[in-house]
Write a structure and sequence with these properties.
This is Amidohydrolase 3 domain-containing protein. With 628 residues, this protein is an alpha/beta fold. It has 21 helices and 23 strands. The strands form five sheets. The protein has a six-stranded mixed β-sheet, with helices on one face. Strands 9-10-11-13-12 form a five-stranded mixed β-sheet, with helices on both faces.
Protein backbone atom coordinates (compact mmCIF):
# COMPACT_ATOMS: atom_id res chain seq x y z
CA UNK A 1 0.00 0.00 0.00
CA UNK A 2 1.60 3.26 -1.12
CA UNK A 3 0.80 6.58 0.51
CA UNK A 4 -0.68 7.86 -2.75
CA UNK A 5 -3.42 5.24 -2.67
CA UNK A 6 -4.85 6.28 0.70
CA UNK A 7 -7.67 8.75 -0.03
CA UNK A 8 -9.31 9.11 3.40
CA UNK A 9 -8.24 8.69 7.01
CA UNK A 10 -10.69 8.76 9.92
CA UNK A 11 -8.85 9.33 13.20
CA UNK A 12 -9.43 10.10 16.90
CA UNK A 13 -12.26 7.60 17.19
CA UNK A 14 -13.28 4.49 19.12
CA UNK A 15 -13.46 2.04 16.26
CA UNK A 16 -14.93 -1.44 16.78
CA UNK A 17 -13.56 -3.35 13.78
CA UNK A 18 -14.79 -6.90 14.57
CA UNK A 19 -11.33 -7.93 13.32
CA UNK A 20 -10.10 -10.52 15.81
CA UNK A 21 -6.50 -9.52 15.12
CA UNK A 22 -7.09 -5.78 15.63
CA UNK A 23 -10.44 -5.33 17.40
CA UNK A 24 -10.20 -1.80 18.78
CA UNK A 25 -8.38 1.03 17.04
CA UNK A 26 -8.56 4.82 16.87
CA UNK A 27 -8.01 5.32 13.14
CA UNK A 28 -8.83 3.74 9.80
CA UNK A 29 -7.39 4.41 6.35
CA UNK A 30 -9.45 3.95 3.16
CA UNK A 31 -8.39 3.52 -0.43
CA UNK A 32 -10.64 3.16 -3.46
CA UNK A 33 -13.73 2.34 -1.42
CA UNK A 34 -12.01 -0.38 0.61
CA UNK A 35 -10.40 -0.56 4.04
CA UNK A 36 -6.66 -0.14 3.53
CA UNK A 37 -5.44 -0.31 7.13
CA UNK A 38 -6.50 0.15 10.76
CA UNK A 39 -4.46 1.19 13.74
CA UNK A 40 -3.41 4.18 15.79
CA UNK A 41 -3.77 7.80 14.70
CA UNK A 42 -0.02 8.01 14.28
CA UNK A 43 0.18 4.86 12.15
CA UNK A 44 -2.67 5.89 9.84
CA UNK A 45 -1.36 9.45 9.46
CA UNK A 46 1.99 8.02 8.43
CA UNK A 47 0.29 6.01 5.68
CA UNK A 48 -1.61 8.96 4.23
CA UNK A 49 -0.25 11.05 1.41
CA UNK A 50 -0.53 14.85 1.29
CA UNK A 51 -3.80 14.75 -0.68
CA UNK A 52 -5.67 12.33 1.61
CA UNK A 53 -8.76 13.67 3.33
CA UNK A 54 -8.32 13.66 7.12
CA UNK A 55 -11.52 13.47 9.19
CA UNK A 56 -11.50 13.86 12.97
CA UNK A 57 -14.01 11.47 14.55
CA UNK A 58 -14.05 13.59 17.72
CA UNK A 59 -13.95 10.55 19.97
CA UNK A 60 -17.09 8.96 18.52
CA UNK A 61 -17.78 5.23 18.39
CA UNK A 62 -17.48 3.69 14.92
CA UNK A 63 -18.91 0.31 13.93
CA UNK A 64 -18.98 -1.64 10.68
CA UNK A 65 -22.01 -0.70 8.61
CA UNK A 66 -25.11 -2.56 9.73
CA UNK A 67 -26.67 -5.17 7.43
CA UNK A 68 -30.36 -6.12 7.69
CA UNK A 69 -30.53 -9.75 6.59
CA UNK A 70 -34.31 -9.66 6.16
CA UNK A 71 -36.11 -6.55 5.04
CA UNK A 72 -38.22 -5.31 2.14
CA UNK A 73 -36.35 -2.25 0.93
CA UNK A 74 -37.28 -2.54 -2.75
CA UNK A 75 -41.02 -2.74 -2.12
CA UNK A 76 -40.80 -0.39 0.85
CA UNK A 77 -38.95 2.20 -1.20
CA UNK A 78 -41.77 2.43 -3.73
CA UNK A 79 -44.17 3.36 -0.92
CA UNK A 80 -42.01 5.08 1.71
CA UNK A 81 -42.95 8.66 0.78
CA UNK A 82 -46.67 7.78 1.01
CA UNK A 83 -46.51 6.33 4.52
CA UNK A 84 -47.01 8.03 7.86
CA UNK A 85 -44.67 6.30 10.28
CA UNK A 86 -45.70 5.65 13.86
CA UNK A 87 -42.35 3.90 14.45
CA UNK A 88 -41.01 5.21 17.75
CA UNK A 89 -43.98 7.48 18.57
CA UNK A 90 -44.31 7.57 22.35
CA UNK A 91 -48.04 8.14 22.79
CA UNK A 92 -51.28 7.42 20.98
CA UNK A 93 -52.32 11.04 21.39
CA UNK A 94 -49.23 12.07 19.40
CA UNK A 95 -49.95 9.39 16.81
CA UNK A 96 -53.53 10.59 16.34
CA UNK A 97 -52.37 14.19 16.15
CA UNK A 98 -49.95 13.20 13.38
CA UNK A 99 -52.82 11.42 11.65
CA UNK A 100 -54.98 14.55 11.76
CA UNK A 101 -52.20 16.77 10.42
CA UNK A 102 -51.50 14.36 7.58
CA UNK A 103 -55.18 13.87 6.72
CA UNK A 104 -55.51 17.63 6.32
CA UNK A 105 -52.38 17.71 4.10
CA UNK A 106 -53.26 14.78 1.84
CA UNK A 107 -55.04 15.60 -1.45
CA UNK A 108 -57.78 13.44 -2.93
CA UNK A 109 -57.72 10.64 -4.00
CA UNK A 110 -54.61 9.79 -1.95
CA UNK A 111 -54.82 7.92 1.35
CA UNK A 112 -53.10 8.29 4.69
CA UNK A 113 -51.35 4.97 5.34
CA UNK A 114 -49.78 3.81 8.58
CA UNK A 115 -48.16 0.57 7.49
CA UNK A 116 -46.35 -1.27 10.26
CA UNK A 117 -43.44 -0.52 12.54
CA UNK A 118 -45.51 0.15 15.67
CA UNK A 119 -47.21 -1.68 18.52
CA UNK A 120 -49.93 -0.56 20.92
CA UNK A 121 -47.53 -1.36 23.77
CA UNK A 122 -45.10 1.39 22.75
CA UNK A 123 -47.75 4.01 23.52
CA UNK A 124 -48.08 5.52 26.99
CA UNK A 125 -51.80 4.75 26.75
CA UNK A 126 -50.94 1.11 25.92
CA UNK A 127 -53.87 0.64 23.59
CA UNK A 128 -54.87 0.72 19.94
CA UNK A 129 -56.65 3.67 18.37
CA UNK A 130 -60.38 3.21 18.03
CA UNK A 131 -62.29 3.42 14.78
CA UNK A 132 -64.24 6.34 16.25
CA UNK A 133 -61.00 8.24 16.87
CA UNK A 134 -59.73 7.58 13.36
CA UNK A 135 -62.97 8.73 11.80
CA UNK A 136 -62.99 11.84 14.00
CA UNK A 137 -59.53 13.00 12.93
CA UNK A 138 -60.10 12.13 9.28
CA UNK A 139 -63.75 12.16 8.23
CA UNK A 140 -63.02 12.68 4.52
CA UNK A 141 -59.49 11.47 3.67
CA UNK A 142 -59.18 7.66 3.42
CA UNK A 143 -57.09 6.20 6.26
CA UNK A 144 -55.57 2.69 6.31
CA UNK A 145 -53.75 1.60 9.48
CA UNK A 146 -52.03 -1.78 9.53
CA UNK A 147 -51.54 -3.44 12.92
CA UNK A 148 -48.89 -6.16 12.75
CA UNK A 149 -50.06 -9.13 10.68
CA UNK A 150 -53.41 -9.36 12.39
CA UNK A 151 -55.67 -6.46 11.44
CA UNK A 152 -56.20 -3.21 9.61
CA UNK A 153 -58.31 -0.23 10.57
CA UNK A 154 -60.08 1.70 7.80
CA UNK A 155 -62.08 4.85 8.31
CA UNK A 156 -65.38 5.42 6.53
CA UNK A 157 -63.71 7.20 3.62
CA UNK A 158 -61.36 4.23 3.09
CA UNK A 159 -64.25 1.77 3.21
CA UNK A 160 -65.91 3.77 0.44
CA UNK A 161 -62.66 4.00 -1.53
CA UNK A 162 -62.16 0.22 -1.60
CA UNK A 163 -65.85 -0.54 -2.07
CA UNK A 164 -66.44 -2.54 1.13
CA UNK A 165 -70.17 -2.72 1.85
CA UNK A 166 -72.76 -4.80 3.64
CA UNK A 167 -72.79 -7.10 0.62
CA UNK A 168 -69.02 -7.72 0.59
CA UNK A 169 -68.06 -11.33 1.27
CA UNK A 170 -65.31 -12.44 3.68
CA UNK A 171 -62.33 -13.75 1.70
CA UNK A 172 -60.79 -17.13 2.59
CA UNK A 173 -58.69 -16.75 5.74
CA UNK A 174 -59.91 -13.21 6.41
CA UNK A 175 -62.81 -11.50 8.19
CA UNK A 176 -64.61 -8.21 7.68
CA UNK A 177 -65.80 -7.11 11.12
CA UNK A 178 -69.44 -5.98 11.02
CA UNK A 179 -71.82 -4.08 13.27
CA UNK A 180 -75.20 -5.33 14.45
CA UNK A 181 -76.73 -4.38 11.11
CA UNK A 182 -74.12 -6.25 9.08
CA UNK A 183 -72.26 -3.14 7.89
CA UNK A 184 -68.43 -3.19 7.88
CA UNK A 185 -67.07 -1.37 10.93
CA UNK A 186 -63.72 -0.64 9.34
CA UNK A 187 -61.74 -3.46 10.92
CA UNK A 188 -60.29 -6.19 8.72
CA UNK A 189 -58.98 -9.27 10.54
CA UNK A 190 -56.50 -11.90 9.38
CA UNK A 191 -57.84 -15.31 10.44
CA UNK A 192 -54.97 -16.09 10.00
CA UNK A 193 -54.18 -15.09 6.41
CA UNK A 194 -53.01 -11.49 6.05
CA UNK A 195 -54.00 -11.45 2.37
CA UNK A 196 -57.16 -9.48 3.23
CA UNK A 197 -54.94 -6.77 4.70
CA UNK A 198 -52.41 -6.56 1.89
CA UNK A 199 -54.88 -6.93 -0.96
CA UNK A 200 -56.90 -4.05 0.48
CA UNK A 201 -53.77 -1.94 0.89
CA UNK A 202 -52.88 -2.67 -2.74
CA UNK A 203 -56.10 -0.94 -3.85
CA UNK A 204 -54.72 2.44 -2.83
CA UNK A 205 -53.20 4.91 -5.31
CA UNK A 206 -49.53 4.46 -6.15
CA UNK A 207 -46.91 7.14 -6.71
CA UNK A 208 -45.79 8.06 -10.23
CA UNK A 209 -42.39 6.73 -11.32
CA UNK A 210 -40.49 9.95 -10.55
CA UNK A 211 -41.83 9.99 -6.99
CA UNK A 212 -41.09 6.27 -6.55
CA UNK A 213 -37.46 6.99 -7.47
CA UNK A 214 -37.37 9.88 -5.01
CA UNK A 215 -39.12 7.75 -2.38
CA UNK A 216 -36.60 4.92 -2.67
CA UNK A 217 -33.69 7.34 -2.40
CA UNK A 218 -35.15 8.87 0.75
CA UNK A 219 -35.85 5.44 2.24
CA UNK A 220 -32.21 4.46 1.66
CA UNK A 221 -31.16 7.73 3.25
CA UNK A 222 -33.29 7.01 6.31
CA UNK A 223 -31.62 3.60 6.58
CA UNK A 224 -28.22 5.31 6.26
CA UNK A 225 -29.26 7.66 9.11
CA UNK A 226 -29.75 4.53 11.20
CA UNK A 227 -26.32 3.09 10.33
CA UNK A 228 -27.45 0.62 7.66
CA UNK A 229 -25.12 0.17 4.69
CA UNK A 230 -26.39 -3.21 3.38
CA UNK A 231 -29.58 -5.25 3.31
CA UNK A 232 -30.85 -8.53 1.98
CA UNK A 233 -34.21 -7.91 0.36
CA UNK A 234 -36.63 -10.78 0.94
CA UNK A 235 -38.97 -9.88 -1.92
CA UNK A 236 -42.53 -9.76 -0.69
CA UNK A 237 -46.17 -9.95 -1.66
CA UNK A 238 -47.13 -7.81 -4.65
CA UNK A 239 -43.42 -7.46 -5.51
CA UNK A 240 -43.20 -8.91 -9.01
CA UNK A 241 -39.93 -9.66 -10.76
CA UNK A 242 -38.73 -8.05 -12.96
CA UNK A 243 -41.43 -5.35 -13.30
CA UNK A 244 -41.26 -3.96 -9.77
CA UNK A 245 -37.45 -3.83 -9.86
CA UNK A 246 -37.28 -1.08 -12.49
CA UNK A 247 -36.82 1.69 -9.92
CA UNK A 248 -33.98 -0.02 -8.05
CA UNK A 249 -32.31 -0.93 -11.35
CA UNK A 250 -32.48 2.68 -12.49
CA UNK A 251 -31.00 3.96 -9.22
CA UNK A 252 -28.25 1.38 -9.53
CA UNK A 253 -27.52 2.31 -13.15
CA UNK A 254 -27.47 6.01 -12.25
CA UNK A 255 -25.04 5.50 -9.36
CA UNK A 256 -27.55 6.55 -6.70
CA UNK A 257 -27.41 3.49 -4.46
CA UNK A 258 -26.47 4.32 -0.87
CA UNK A 259 -27.43 0.89 0.52
CA UNK A 260 -26.00 -2.34 -0.89
CA UNK A 261 -28.79 -4.78 -1.77
CA UNK A 262 -28.72 -8.53 -2.25
CA UNK A 263 -32.20 -9.52 -3.42
CA UNK A 264 -34.14 -12.77 -3.21
CA UNK A 265 -36.98 -13.58 -5.58
CA UNK A 266 -40.39 -14.28 -4.03
CA UNK A 267 -43.01 -16.25 -5.97
CA UNK A 268 -46.34 -14.46 -6.42
CA UNK A 269 -48.44 -17.16 -8.04
CA UNK A 270 -50.06 -19.86 -5.97
CA UNK A 271 -50.05 -23.21 -7.69
CA UNK A 272 -47.44 -22.31 -10.31
CA UNK A 273 -44.52 -21.44 -8.05
CA UNK A 274 -42.20 -23.90 -9.78
CA UNK A 275 -42.87 -22.22 -13.12
CA UNK A 276 -41.84 -18.86 -11.61
CA UNK A 277 -38.49 -20.22 -10.48
CA UNK A 278 -37.95 -22.11 -13.72
CA UNK A 279 -38.48 -18.88 -15.64
CA UNK A 280 -36.31 -16.78 -13.33
CA UNK A 281 -33.45 -19.27 -13.31
CA UNK A 282 -33.21 -18.66 -17.06
CA UNK A 283 -33.11 -14.88 -16.52
CA UNK A 284 -30.67 -14.37 -13.65
CA UNK A 285 -27.76 -16.33 -12.18
CA UNK A 286 -26.99 -16.69 -8.46
CA UNK A 287 -24.88 -13.85 -7.05
CA UNK A 288 -24.84 -12.05 -10.41
CA UNK A 289 -24.59 -8.28 -10.19
CA UNK A 290 -22.08 -6.24 -8.25
CA UNK A 291 -21.35 -4.98 -4.75
CA UNK A 292 -24.36 -2.67 -4.77
CA UNK A 293 -27.07 -4.82 -6.37
CA UNK A 294 -26.76 -8.57 -6.62
CA UNK A 295 -29.01 -11.60 -6.85
CA UNK A 296 -29.26 -13.79 -3.76
CA UNK A 297 -31.46 -16.69 -4.83
CA UNK A 298 -35.04 -17.66 -3.98
CA UNK A 299 -37.49 -16.87 -1.18
CA UNK A 300 -38.66 -16.00 1.36
CA UNK A 301 -41.79 -17.45 -0.30
CA UNK A 302 -40.98 -20.67 -2.13
CA UNK A 303 -44.46 -22.22 -2.26
CA UNK A 304 -47.67 -20.90 -0.76
CA UNK A 305 -48.45 -24.26 0.84
CA UNK A 306 -45.32 -23.93 3.03
CA UNK A 307 -46.02 -20.40 4.30
CA UNK A 308 -47.18 -20.29 7.90
CA UNK A 309 -48.36 -17.06 9.49
CA UNK A 310 -46.88 -15.05 12.30
CA UNK A 311 -50.06 -13.67 13.82
CA UNK A 312 -49.83 -14.63 17.49
CA UNK A 313 -53.39 -13.45 18.05
CA UNK A 314 -54.47 -16.50 16.05
CA UNK A 315 -53.81 -20.21 16.64
CA UNK A 316 -50.88 -21.75 14.79
CA UNK A 317 -51.98 -22.81 11.31
CA UNK A 318 -51.25 -26.30 9.97
CA UNK A 319 -49.62 -26.40 6.58
CA UNK A 320 -51.47 -27.96 3.67
CA UNK A 321 -51.18 -31.68 2.99
CA UNK A 322 -49.59 -31.00 -0.39
CA UNK A 323 -46.80 -28.91 1.13
CA UNK A 324 -44.11 -31.58 0.87
CA UNK A 325 -44.78 -32.36 -2.77
CA UNK A 326 -44.86 -28.72 -3.90
CA UNK A 327 -41.91 -27.61 -1.76
CA UNK A 328 -39.87 -30.61 -2.87
CA UNK A 329 -40.33 -29.80 -6.54
CA UNK A 330 -39.20 -26.20 -6.08
CA UNK A 331 -36.24 -27.00 -3.80
CA UNK A 332 -35.02 -29.75 -6.12
CA UNK A 333 -35.08 -27.30 -9.04
CA UNK A 334 -33.23 -24.67 -7.00
CA UNK A 335 -30.51 -27.13 -5.99
CA UNK A 336 -30.14 -28.32 -9.57
CA UNK A 337 -29.66 -24.69 -10.60
CA UNK A 338 -27.32 -24.06 -7.61
CA UNK A 339 -29.62 -21.33 -6.38
CA UNK A 340 -29.37 -20.36 -2.70
CA UNK A 341 -32.73 -20.08 -0.96
CA UNK A 342 -34.48 -18.91 2.16
CA UNK A 343 -37.83 -20.04 3.58
CA UNK A 344 -40.24 -18.13 5.80
CA UNK A 345 -41.15 -20.35 8.77
CA UNK A 346 -42.40 -19.15 12.14
CA UNK A 347 -43.20 -22.41 13.91
CA UNK A 348 -41.20 -25.57 14.54
CA UNK A 349 -44.03 -27.66 13.13
CA UNK A 350 -43.50 -25.97 9.75
CA UNK A 351 -39.72 -26.13 10.03
CA UNK A 352 -39.74 -29.85 10.84
CA UNK A 353 -41.85 -30.67 7.78
CA UNK A 354 -39.68 -28.47 5.57
CA UNK A 355 -36.58 -30.26 6.87
CA UNK A 356 -38.12 -33.59 5.90
CA UNK A 357 -38.29 -32.22 2.34
CA UNK A 358 -34.78 -30.78 2.38
CA UNK A 359 -33.26 -34.01 3.66
CA UNK A 360 -35.09 -36.03 1.03
CA UNK A 361 -33.92 -33.72 -1.78
CA UNK A 362 -30.38 -33.74 -0.42
CA UNK A 363 -30.34 -37.56 -0.55
CA UNK A 364 -30.71 -37.62 -4.33
CA UNK A 365 -29.70 -34.06 -5.31
CA UNK A 366 -26.98 -33.05 -2.83
CA UNK A 367 -26.99 -29.48 -1.55
CA UNK A 368 -23.16 -29.50 -1.67
CA UNK A 369 -22.59 -26.04 -0.26
CA UNK A 370 -25.64 -24.24 -1.64
CA UNK A 371 -26.45 -21.69 1.05
CA UNK A 372 -29.92 -21.82 2.56
CA UNK A 373 -31.64 -20.68 5.70
CA UNK A 374 -34.92 -20.31 7.52
CA UNK A 375 -36.35 -16.88 8.22
CA UNK A 376 -37.93 -16.11 11.63
CA UNK A 377 -37.96 -19.54 13.40
CA UNK A 378 -39.43 -18.21 16.63
CA UNK A 379 -40.32 -21.65 17.99
CA UNK A 380 -37.64 -23.81 16.34
CA UNK A 381 -36.74 -26.83 18.51
CA UNK A 382 -33.30 -28.09 19.49
CA UNK A 383 -33.88 -31.15 17.33
CA UNK A 384 -34.66 -29.02 14.29
CA UNK A 385 -31.59 -26.88 14.93
CA UNK A 386 -29.47 -30.03 14.90
CA UNK A 387 -30.98 -30.98 11.54
CA UNK A 388 -30.40 -27.46 10.17
CA UNK A 389 -26.79 -27.64 11.30
CA UNK A 390 -26.29 -31.05 9.69
CA UNK A 391 -27.56 -29.70 6.35
CA UNK A 392 -25.30 -26.63 6.67
CA UNK A 393 -28.28 -24.33 6.86
CA UNK A 394 -28.77 -21.18 8.89
CA UNK A 395 -31.37 -18.90 10.46
CA UNK A 396 -32.16 -15.22 10.01
CA UNK A 397 -33.79 -13.79 13.14
CA UNK A 398 -35.80 -10.58 13.35
CA UNK A 399 -37.19 -8.60 16.26
CA UNK A 400 -40.82 -9.46 15.53
CA UNK A 401 -41.14 -10.60 19.14
CA UNK A 402 -40.30 -7.05 20.23
CA UNK A 403 -43.57 -6.00 18.61
CA UNK A 404 -45.67 -9.11 19.27
CA UNK A 405 -44.11 -10.55 22.42
CA UNK A 406 -47.07 -9.60 24.59
CA UNK A 407 -49.41 -11.48 22.26
CA UNK A 408 -47.07 -14.49 22.20
CA UNK A 409 -46.97 -14.60 26.02
CA UNK A 410 -50.74 -14.36 26.14
CA UNK A 411 -51.19 -17.37 23.83
CA UNK A 412 -48.25 -19.62 24.70
CA UNK A 413 -47.07 -18.43 28.12
CA UNK A 414 -44.00 -16.64 29.47
CA UNK A 415 -41.99 -19.86 29.69
CA UNK A 416 -42.37 -20.60 25.97
CA UNK A 417 -41.44 -17.01 25.17
CA UNK A 418 -38.06 -17.30 26.93
CA UNK A 419 -36.52 -19.04 23.90
CA UNK A 420 -38.57 -17.62 21.05
CA UNK A 421 -36.38 -17.60 19.11
CA UNK A 422 -33.57 -19.56 20.84
CA UNK A 423 -30.77 -17.30 19.62
CA UNK A 424 -28.18 -18.32 22.19
CA UNK A 425 -28.76 -22.00 21.43
CA UNK A 426 -28.28 -21.34 17.71
CA UNK A 427 -24.97 -19.58 18.32
CA UNK A 428 -23.75 -22.19 20.79
CA UNK A 429 -24.46 -24.90 18.21
CA UNK A 430 -22.59 -23.04 15.50
CA UNK A 431 -25.67 -22.43 13.34
CA UNK A 432 -25.03 -19.31 11.21
CA UNK A 433 -27.36 -16.51 12.37
CA UNK A 434 -28.06 -13.16 10.73
CA UNK A 435 -29.82 -10.20 12.35
CA UNK A 436 -32.64 -8.22 10.82
CA UNK A 437 -36.02 -6.56 11.13
CA UNK A 438 -38.58 -7.91 8.62
CA UNK A 439 -39.47 -4.25 8.05
CA UNK A 440 -41.58 -2.46 7.04
CA UNK A 441 -45.00 -3.97 7.61
CA UNK A 442 -44.62 -5.35 11.12
CA UNK A 443 -41.41 -4.45 12.92
CA UNK A 444 -39.65 -1.13 12.44
CA UNK A 445 -36.69 -0.77 10.09
CA UNK A 446 -34.66 0.74 12.95
CA UNK A 447 -31.73 -1.66 13.60
CA UNK A 448 -31.06 -0.22 17.04
CA UNK A 449 -34.48 -1.36 18.24
CA UNK A 450 -33.51 -4.86 17.07
CA UNK A 451 -30.12 -4.63 18.75
CA UNK A 452 -31.82 -3.43 21.95
CA UNK A 453 -34.11 -6.47 21.80
CA UNK A 454 -31.17 -8.86 21.28
CA UNK A 455 -29.24 -7.34 24.18
CA UNK A 456 -32.02 -6.68 26.73
CA UNK A 457 -34.61 -9.27 25.70
CA UNK A 458 -37.33 -6.62 25.98
CA UNK A 459 -40.24 -5.69 23.76
CA UNK A 460 -40.83 -2.11 22.65
CA UNK A 461 -43.44 -2.02 25.42
CA UNK A 462 -40.87 -2.98 28.06
CA UNK A 463 -41.88 -6.60 28.68
CA UNK A 464 -38.85 -8.76 29.51
CA UNK A 465 -39.09 -11.88 27.38
CA UNK A 466 -35.70 -13.52 27.90
CA UNK A 467 -33.42 -14.31 30.80
CA UNK A 468 -29.63 -14.05 30.71
CA UNK A 469 -29.49 -17.44 28.99
CA UNK A 470 -31.03 -16.07 25.78
CA UNK A 471 -29.61 -12.55 25.64
CA UNK A 472 -26.51 -11.44 23.77
CA UNK A 473 -23.72 -9.12 24.75
CA UNK A 474 -23.21 -6.05 22.60
CA UNK A 475 -20.44 -7.41 20.44
CA UNK A 476 -22.36 -10.63 19.81
CA UNK A 477 -25.43 -8.65 18.76
CA UNK A 478 -23.31 -6.44 16.53
CA UNK A 479 -21.75 -9.52 14.89
CA UNK A 480 -25.22 -10.84 14.03
CA UNK A 481 -26.01 -7.52 12.35
CA UNK A 482 -22.75 -7.40 10.36
CA UNK A 483 -20.77 -10.57 9.68
CA UNK A 484 -23.76 -12.78 10.47
CA UNK A 485 -25.90 -11.06 7.86
CA UNK A 486 -23.08 -10.93 5.31
CA UNK A 487 -22.85 -14.74 5.45
CA UNK A 488 -26.49 -14.91 4.31
CA UNK A 489 -25.52 -13.36 0.96
CA UNK A 490 -22.16 -15.13 0.66
CA UNK A 491 -20.31 -11.85 1.24
CA UNK A 492 -18.63 -12.40 4.61
CA UNK A 493 -15.20 -12.02 2.97
CA UNK A 494 -15.97 -8.48 1.77
CA UNK A 495 -18.37 -6.94 4.29
CA UNK A 496 -19.28 -7.01 7.95
CA UNK A 497 -15.96 -6.04 9.52
CA UNK A 498 -13.44 -3.23 9.16
CA UNK A 499 -10.59 -5.38 7.92
CA UNK A 500 -8.06 -4.47 5.21
CA UNK A 501 -9.41 -5.59 1.85
CA UNK A 502 -13.08 -5.37 2.86
CA UNK A 503 -15.63 -2.73 1.87
CA UNK A 504 -15.20 0.65 3.56
CA UNK A 505 -18.73 0.59 5.01
CA UNK A 506 -19.04 2.12 8.46
CA UNK A 507 -21.24 4.16 10.78
CA UNK A 508 -20.17 6.87 13.23
CA UNK A 509 -22.66 6.78 16.09
CA UNK A 510 -24.42 9.42 18.17
CA UNK A 511 -24.09 7.25 21.29
CA UNK A 512 -21.29 4.88 22.25
CA UNK A 513 -23.11 1.65 21.46
CA UNK A 514 -20.58 -0.42 23.40
CA UNK A 515 -20.97 1.46 26.71
CA UNK A 516 -24.21 3.47 26.92
CA UNK A 517 -27.01 2.35 29.28
CA UNK A 518 -29.29 -0.24 27.73
CA UNK A 519 -32.20 2.15 27.25
CA UNK A 520 -30.02 4.52 25.22
CA UNK A 521 -29.30 1.82 22.61
CA UNK A 522 -32.67 2.26 20.90
CA UNK A 523 -32.14 6.04 20.70
CA UNK A 524 -28.84 5.65 18.86
CA UNK A 525 -28.51 6.91 15.28
CA UNK A 526 -25.64 7.35 12.89
CA UNK A 527 -24.22 10.85 12.55
CA UNK A 528 -22.02 9.87 9.64
CA UNK A 529 -22.47 6.86 7.37
CA UNK A 530 -19.89 5.73 4.82
CA UNK A 531 -20.59 3.25 2.01
CA UNK A 532 -17.73 2.20 -0.23
CA UNK A 533 -15.58 4.99 1.16
CA UNK A 534 -18.16 7.63 0.26
CA UNK A 535 -19.97 9.66 2.93
CA UNK A 536 -23.65 9.11 2.10
CA UNK A 537 -25.13 10.74 5.20
CA UNK A 538 -23.82 13.17 7.81
CA UNK A 539 -25.43 15.21 10.58
CA UNK A 540 -24.68 17.19 13.73
CA UNK A 541 -20.95 17.93 14.06
CA UNK A 542 -20.31 16.24 10.72
CA UNK A 543 -23.08 18.06 8.84
CA UNK A 544 -20.61 19.76 6.48
CA UNK A 545 -19.83 16.35 4.95
CA UNK A 546 -23.46 15.60 4.09
CA UNK A 547 -24.59 14.80 0.55
CA UNK A 548 -28.17 16.08 0.45
CA UNK A 549 -30.86 14.60 -1.77
CA UNK A 550 -33.53 16.35 -3.81
CA UNK A 551 -36.51 17.33 -1.61
CA UNK A 552 -39.05 14.66 -0.72
CA UNK A 553 -41.76 14.36 -3.35
CA UNK A 554 -44.71 14.70 -3.60
CA UNK A 555 -44.91 17.82 -1.45
CA UNK A 556 -47.78 16.37 0.64
CA UNK A 557 -45.65 13.37 1.64
CA UNK A 558 -45.76 12.47 5.34
CA UNK A 559 -41.98 12.00 5.17
CA UNK A 560 -41.55 15.61 4.09
CA UNK A 561 -43.41 16.77 7.21
CA UNK A 562 -42.55 14.15 9.84
CA UNK A 563 -39.50 12.26 8.58
CA UNK A 564 -39.09 8.52 9.18
CA UNK A 565 -38.41 6.88 12.54
CA UNK A 566 -39.68 9.14 15.33
CA UNK A 567 -37.88 9.82 18.57
CA UNK A 568 -39.82 10.85 21.66
CA UNK A 569 -42.55 13.47 21.72
CA UNK A 570 -43.51 15.28 18.55
CA UNK A 571 -43.52 19.00 19.24
CA UNK A 572 -45.52 19.88 16.16
CA UNK A 573 -48.07 17.17 16.64
CA UNK A 574 -48.83 17.63 20.32
CA UNK A 575 -49.76 21.28 19.76
CA UNK A 576 -52.77 20.10 17.77
CA UNK A 577 -56.07 20.18 19.65
CA UNK A 578 -57.09 16.85 21.11
CA UNK A 579 -57.66 14.50 18.23
CA UNK A 580 -60.13 12.45 20.23
CA UNK A 581 -62.30 15.25 21.58
CA UNK A 582 -65.27 14.64 19.32
CA UNK A 583 -65.33 10.87 18.97
CA UNK A 584 -68.20 10.43 21.40
CA UNK A 585 -66.56 8.22 24.00
CA UNK A 586 -67.03 9.51 27.51
CA UNK A 587 -63.58 8.48 28.71
CA UNK A 588 -60.38 10.42 28.67
CA UNK A 589 -58.08 8.87 26.08
CA UNK A 590 -55.01 10.84 27.06
CA UNK A 591 -54.29 10.01 30.66
CA UNK A 592 -52.36 6.92 31.63
CA UNK A 593 -54.38 6.47 34.82
CA UNK A 594 -57.74 6.66 33.08
CA UNK A 595 -58.15 2.90 33.05
CA UNK A 596 -58.42 3.01 29.25
CA UNK A 597 -55.28 1.04 28.49
CA UNK A 598 -55.30 -1.73 25.88
CA UNK A 599 -57.15 -4.80 27.07
CA UNK A 600 -54.33 -7.28 26.64
CA UNK A 601 -51.73 -5.01 28.23
CA UNK A 602 -53.91 -4.63 31.32
CA UNK A 603 -54.55 -8.37 31.47
CA UNK A 604 -50.81 -8.94 31.34
CA UNK A 605 -50.30 -6.43 34.16
CA UNK A 606 -48.24 -4.13 31.95
CA UNK A 607 -50.14 -0.92 32.76
CA UNK A 608 -48.45 -0.49 36.12
CA UNK A 609 -51.55 -1.20 38.16
CA UNK A 610 -50.37 -4.62 39.28
CA UNK A 611 -53.94 -5.83 38.89
CA UNK A 612 -54.21 -8.81 36.59
CA UNK A 613 -57.81 -9.93 36.07
CA UNK A 614 -58.42 -13.61 36.52
CA UNK A 615 -60.56 -14.01 33.42
CA UNK A 616 -59.56 -16.79 31.08
CA UNK A 617 -60.52 -14.56 28.16
CA UNK A 618 -58.49 -11.33 28.25
CA UNK A 619 -60.67 -9.80 25.52
CA UNK A 620 -63.70 -9.88 27.83
CA UNK A 621 -62.62 -6.83 29.81
CA UNK A 622 -62.01 -3.16 29.14
CA UNK A 623 -63.78 -0.25 27.59
CA UNK A 624 -66.39 -1.01 24.96
CA UNK A 625 -64.88 1.41 22.46
CA UNK A 626 -61.64 -0.58 22.25
CA UNK A 627 -61.04 -1.45 18.60
CA UNK A 628 -61.40 -5.19 19.19
Amino acid sequence: MTNAQIDTVFFNGKITTLDKDNPDVTAIALAGGMVAATGSDKEMRALAGPLARMIDLQGKRVIPGLNDSHTHLIRGGLNYNMELRWDGVASLSDALAMLKIQADRTPAPQWVRVVGGWSEFQFRERRMPTLAEINAVSPDTPVFILHLYDSALLNGAALRAVGLTKDSQDPPGGKIQRDANGNPTGMLIAEPNAMILYSTLAKGPTLPLSDQINSTRHFMRELNRLGITSVIDAGGGFQNYPDDYNVINKLHNDGHMTVRIAYNLFTQNKGVELADFQRWSGMVKPYSGDGFLRHNGAGEMLVFSAADFEDFLQPRPDMAANMEKELGAVVRHLIEQRWPFRLHATYDETISRALDVFEQVNADTPFNGVRWFFDHAETVSDKSLERIKKLNGGVAVQHRMAFQGEYFVDRYGAEAAKHSPPIRKMLDMGVPVGGGTDATRVASFNPFVSLYWLITGKTVGGLSLYGDENRLDREEALRLWTLGSAYKSNEETVKGALVPGMYADLAVLSHDFMTVPDEAIKDTVSIMTVVGGKIVYAADEFKSFDAPLPPVSPDWSPVRHFGGYQSGALEGAVKVASACAVHGCGHSHHHHASGHDGILSRWLGLDGSGNKPSFENPWAIGCGCFAY
